[in-house]
Amino acid sequence: ERHGVDVNSERAVVTPGSSGAFILSFTALFDAGARVGIGAPGYPSYRQILKALDLCPVDIPAREEARYQLQPADLMGQKLDGLLMASPSNPTGTMLSRDELAALMGWAESEGAAFISDEIYHGIEYEARAVTALEVSDTCHVINSFSKYYSMTGWRVGWMVVPEAQVRAVERIAQNMFICPPHAAQVAALAAMDCETELQENLAQYAKNRQMMLEGLPKAGFDRIAPPDGAFYVYADVSDWTDDSVSFAKEVLEKAGVAVTPGLDFDPVRGAQTLRFSYARATADIEEGLARLTAFMAGRDRRTNRKG
Q: Where does a domain end: 156, 171, 192?
């Protein structure tokens, strides 16, 4: 209903979280050794699940000027068997427009590559609505979960929508791997779908926290940030301050008492100069965290010999 798309319910497969859906999708679509493109920065578990299944993750650098989202020009010559995109993205929170998403899906179709859309952060969006890949084509795999918008991370309930011709293959793999999520979790997930008032209250809090981050991080010195269209993250280029995001994150934790995530988790090549900030906390916590970051950064000087 949210996207105005009419989907046959028989195409929906309930999974143990989005992680279970990724395993099913990758196993159903690809043979060992297949090359699957993922944008960098991107969710680190994509890479690890692909490797565990004897598939080849291909990290493709997404450009800062493209808001850290891949464009068809970035894919030329990659010879991919599949392409996985997330909108809104973790770690950046940036989204693809309908035209941008359609262009990527068109590229995949022209190359004979499968297209997988990670839509786990749909519903957590601010100035514009996130676009589902199902608005563009029925040939893709779409993956979602109750973990984010429905705030049910520990319950491990997700779902995927696949083409009708692939439903039975996915079901057979699921039967042999994990059968289904626990029944109690599925009942709770159905109840969560009726909690729209509470869910919108959560979204309003995220929006308030987001605005505080957009105002507070630049004041603290983190002024090179990706525009967070959705999700609850801010991704910052900290090359003015460090070329070792892991050590920097440890120092922030030890001296300021604020937990941030080093970019190397999301981009093995360029992540030494980036950090991810999350604002999925109480507004008072965000206010306190920003105050601590500002005080911590006040005594630091920008690097004069940064690279890149």
A: 192
Could you give the number of structural domains in the chain? 2
CB atoms closer than 10 angstroms to residue 179: 9
pLDDT in tens, 85-118: 999 999 999 999 999 999 999 999 999 999 999 9
Same domain for 249 and 219 = yes
Over residues 1-44, the pLDDT tens digits come to 777 889 999 999 999 999 999 999 999 999 999 999 999 999 99
Same structural domain, 51 and 161: yes
CB 5 within 8 A of CB 135: yes
Q: Is the dihedral of CA 94, 30, 113, 47 positive or negative?
A: positive
Do 182 and 212 fall within a single domain?
Answer: no
CA–CA separation, 106 vs 143, rounded Å? Answer: 19
Contact indicator for 240, 277 with CB cutoff of 8 Å: no
**47-62 per-residue burial string, b: 16 or more CB within 10 A, e: under 16:** bebbeeeebebbbbeb
Q: 201 is in which domain, residue-wise?
A: 196-297
H-type helices in 193-257, by residue range?
196-220, 245-256
This prediction's pTM: 0.95
Amino acid at 187: V
Number of Cβ within 10 Å of residue 165's Cβ equals 9
| Contact (CB, 8 A) for 96 and 62 | no
Beta strand 82-86 with 233-237 is unpaired
Q: Which tokens in the block code for residue 192? A: 């969560």
Q: In Å, how far are 134, 226, 282, 297, 305 from 93, measured between CA atoms? A: 20, 8, 19, 24, 29
Do the domain assignments include residue 258? yes
Q: How far is CA 70 from CA 40, 59, 65, 91, 296, in A?
A: 9, 11, 11, 14, 34
| Structural domain ending residue among the three candidates 140, 169, 192 | 192
